[in-house]
């Protein structure tokens, strides 16, 4: 791949300053921009030197193609990267190579083991009264069907709550179909409600005597691309096969059921599915290699500003949106800081987590390994919501540190980023760090169409807009630089280490 030199990128920026100015004008329409520079509380921490360097990073990032080229490379040279697979191992080798090429410090792989599940042949069809095929995909960790598949009558439930109220008499010997939809929202909040049926349908229906579970895909599109994703079985009761229907096929099955009894034939030939406590538990014979890949921009101290993304993906597409984009964003952002003539005060650590999709196993491995040094983790952010523009900045600072949020917002305003609340979650791979008291932030992307592509065969490189991706890089680079250099931390003063 051809890559622009730093001088070429700088020249391109000089020719396109009008674009940067346009971004600035857009941001100035927000009330935050109307604050007095000298009186706003962030002024105590945002020195002129810090602000100037952050703005330089933004200007350079706006026209830098490093992230776009990294995502292209990962999705082309590796493709889908299912946790515990040979492809995920190749992705780790790719990451090590690219991190070394970008001249990061302390490049390393930190291995762990994980449950490995493998998709096989899958097929579903209405066999009566209206014979026709259905577009489905097995849910991750689902068991396969018996030899010859399962043929049974379908019973529909409009919501997961309706299934929870069902009796064994209603579902015994039948294929349960949960037809609950997903609400489209900019911040992705509709996903939290809808995804419960993915974990819950088989877990509830199996112990009641159902022979299989189908769900309407957890997605907002209306294409014949079913959405996969991990599911769970209860500690007791039958582990039954589980699959997701593409939205048009869920509609079709629902219409057929309105006309009377419907029988479906289901075949799933997946391997490695079944009951397990967590993605990271089991004996060596049951587990496969995985790992986190880590690199650093060395700072003057051993305090850590962590930038995260996950390296694995589901196996249907090439994992460009989820989460190849995040990988490219945080690597490119850290690389811009690596190229500065001055070092950051704190070390910026880039963590590409393994096995996120099957139960945040890499996040657990990282938190366990660094348990004794989490007090040195000053703040963390994760990019795991696609490649659209960042529009909101949420924090999880100590109340007595919240005034520092304004220092970031002053710099972010030219990127069109608005203030959010102080209830940031940070991202799935930061779960254990957040629970351990590490402050996190969320640089929230526009997720309006994220769940059109999420966990489908349509999650491919052509969906990424290079200009929007560059805005993400600019945001993460500015954030990391400020977080690494602002005096003091972001925890409450009396927070325990």
Your description of this structure?
This protein is of the alpha/beta class and 497 residues long. The protein has 2 domains: 6-116 and 281-485, Zn peptidases (Aminopeptidase, 3-Layer(aba) Sandwich); 122-268, Glucose Oxidase, domain 1, CATH 3.50.30.30. It is 33% helix and 19% strand. It is built from 16 helices and 16 strands. It has helices spanning 6-15, 17-28, 48-61, 66-77, 86-101, 160-164, 168-171, 189-194, 196-205, 247-258, 320-338, 361-369, 405-412, 431-435, 450-453, 466-485, and strands at residues 105-115, 122-128, 132-134, 136-138, 150-157, 175-178, 212-216, 242-245, 263-268, 287-297, 304-310, 347-353, 377-382, 390-395, 418-419, 440-445. The strands form 2 sheets. Strands 1-10-12-11-13-16-14-15 form an 8-stranded mixed β-sheet, sandwiched between helices. Strands 3-2-9-5-6-7-8-4 form an 8-stranded mixed β-sheet. A hairpin with a 3-residue loop joins strand 2 and strand 3 (132-134). Helix 4 (66-77) packs across helix 11 and helix 11 (320-338) packs across helix 16. The radius of gyration is 24 Å and the shape is elongated. It starts with 5 loop residues before the first helix and ends in a 12-residue tail after the last helix.
């Amino acid at each position: 791949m051809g890559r622009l030199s730093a001088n070429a990128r700088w020249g391109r920026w000089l020719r396109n300053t009008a674009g940067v100015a346009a971004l600035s004008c857009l941001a100035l329409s927000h009330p935050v921009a109307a604050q007095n520079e000298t009186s706003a509380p962030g002024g105590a921490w945002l020195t002129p030197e810090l602000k100037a360097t952050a703005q330089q990073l933004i200007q350079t990032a706006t026209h830098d193609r490093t992230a776009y080229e990294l995502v292209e490379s990962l999705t082309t040279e590796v493709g889908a990267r299912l946790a515990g697979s040979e492809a995920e191992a190749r992705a780790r080798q790719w990451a090590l190579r690219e991190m070394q090429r970008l001249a990061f410090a302390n490049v390393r792989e930190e291995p762990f083991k994980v449950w490995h599940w493998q998709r096989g042949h899958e097929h579903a069809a209405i066999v009566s009264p209206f014979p026709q095929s259905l577009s489905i995909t097995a849910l991750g960790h689902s068991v396969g069907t018996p030899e010859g598949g399962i043929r049974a009558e379908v019973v529909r439930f409009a919501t997961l709550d309706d299934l929870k109220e069902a009796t064994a008499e209603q579902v015994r010997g039948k294929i349960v179909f949960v037809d609950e939809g997903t609400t489209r929202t900019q911040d992705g909040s509709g996903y939290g409600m809808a995804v419960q049926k993915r974990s819950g349908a088989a877990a509830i229906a199996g112990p009641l005597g159902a022979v299989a579970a189908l769900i309407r895909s957890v997605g907002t599109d209306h294409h014949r691309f079913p959405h996969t994703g991990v599911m769970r079985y209860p500690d007791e009761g039958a582990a039954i096969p589980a699959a997701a229907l593409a939205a048009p096929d869920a509609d079709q099955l629902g219409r057929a059921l309105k006309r009377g009894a419907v029988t479906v034939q289901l075949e799933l030939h997946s391997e490695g599915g079944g009951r397990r406590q967590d993605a990271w538990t089991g004996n060596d014979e049951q587990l496969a290699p995985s790992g986190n890949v880590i690199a650093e921009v060395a700072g003057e101290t051993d305090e850590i500003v962590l930038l995260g993304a996950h390296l694995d993906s589901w196996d249907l597409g090439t994992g460009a949106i989820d989460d190849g984009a995040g990988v490219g964003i945080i690597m490119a952002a850290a690389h811009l800081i690596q190229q500065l003539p001055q070092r950051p005060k704190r070390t910026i650590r880039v963590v590409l987590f393994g096995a996120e999709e099957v139960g945040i196993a890499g996040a657990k491995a990282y938190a366990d390994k660094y348990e004794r040094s989490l007090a040195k983790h000053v703040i963390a952010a994760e990019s795991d919501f696609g490649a659209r523009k960042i529009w909101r900045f949420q924090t999880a600072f100590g109340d007595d540190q919240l005034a520092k949020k304004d220092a970031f917002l002053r710099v972010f305003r030219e990127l069109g980023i608005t203030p959010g609340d102080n209830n940031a979650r940070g991202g799935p791979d930061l779960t254990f760090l957040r629970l351990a008291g590490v402050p996190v932030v969320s640089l929230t992307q526009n997720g309006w169409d994220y769940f059109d592509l999420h966990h489908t065969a349509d999650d491919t490189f052509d969906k990424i807009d290079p200009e929007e991706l560059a805005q993400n890089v600019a945001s993460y680079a500015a954030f990391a630089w400020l977080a690494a250099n602002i005096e003091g931390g972001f925890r409450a003063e009396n927070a325990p280490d």
